Amino acid sequence: MTATELTELTAVDDIEWGVRLLAATPTHEGRDPELLRQWARTADEFGSRLAPVPSTARVVERADGLERMLLARYTSRPPTVELYTDTLALAEELVDARGWRAWYPPGSVRAAALAHEAVHAHLHHGPAKAALKQALGHTVLRLGRYRVTGHVAGAEEVAAHAYARTVCGLGRSPLLLTAALRTALTRPGTPAPRSPAPRREN
């Protein structure tokens, strides 16, 4: 990553990264940028205000995240968090190489990935999903005084990143690190991370 690319990434604030995530999500093509910004800010605030979310999902470590371009993934049947140790290792290397350690302390990338996926589980299984939908206020149908609020694709992702940033005490959203990883992984000649951890199930 060049110095120019690094400056461009860090110059984008956390809300704008949320806007870009929403803009790149199918169904949002052509939406008003200000509406996307409103949704991103609402989802960010929602995630940052969530009480600590415990996770009962089992954690499975895998070492094929670079080829999948994944850091972590939650699946609901059975509740499982897959952590991709090779991508985690590359993320830690990027943090050191870019001088971002003050934003992402040692071990925080893994902690943030687990926190992020815990929110996905929380939104999947509990009433918080309806609360987020209500907060976003996306009306898809109105009949007189009655209105039906709809799902905003990508909003849960923004909320999960905001929660991880808050609960892990990060200086910046994991969205910044995700963008840096995407840039590194789509560049020819990406170096492999050192000593990726073996696959292990917890």
Description:
It is a single chain. The radius of gyration is 17 Å and the shape is globular. The protein has 9 helices and 6 strands. A hairpin with a 2-residue loop joins strand 2 and strand 3. Mean pLDDT is 87; it is low at 190-202. It has helices at 3-11, 14-23, 33-49, 65-68, 85-98, 108-125, 128-136, 155-167, 174-185, and strands spanning 58-62, 72-76, 79-84, 139-143, 146-149, 200-201. The two termini are 35 Å apart. By secondary structure, it is α+β, with helices and mostly antiparallel strands.
Q: Main attributes?
A:
202 residues; alpha+beta; 4-stranded mixed beta sheet; two-stranded antiparallel sheet; 9 helices; 6 strands; 52% helix; 13% strand; globular; disordered C terminus
Low-confidence parts = 190-202
Q: Give the amount of beta strand, in percent.
A: 5-15%
Kindly state the mean pLDDT as a whole number? Answer: 87
Report the strand count.
6
- Indicate the overall shape: globular
| CA distance, first residue to last residue | 35 Å
Proportion in helices:
40-55%
Rg, Å, rounded: 17 Å
What's the total helix number? 9
List the strand order in the largest sheet: 2-3-1-6
- Major beta sheet, specifics? 4 strands, mixed
Determine the structural class based on helices, strands and strand pairing.
alpha+beta
Question: In sequence order, what are the helices and strands, one letter per element?
Answer: HHHEHEEHHHEEHHE
Short structural description:
With 202 residues, the protein is of the alpha+beta class. Helices cover 52% and strands 13% of the residues.
Secondary structure blueprint with pairings:
Layout: H1 3-11, H2 14-23, H3 33-49, E1 58-62, H4 65-68, E2 72-76, E3 79-84, H5 85-98, H6 108-125, H7 128-136, E4 139-143, E5 146-149, H8 155-167, H9 174-185, E6 200-201
Parallel strand pairs: 1-3
Antiparallel strand pairs: 1-6, 2-3, 4-5
Helix pairs in contact: 2-3, 3-8, 5-9, 6-8
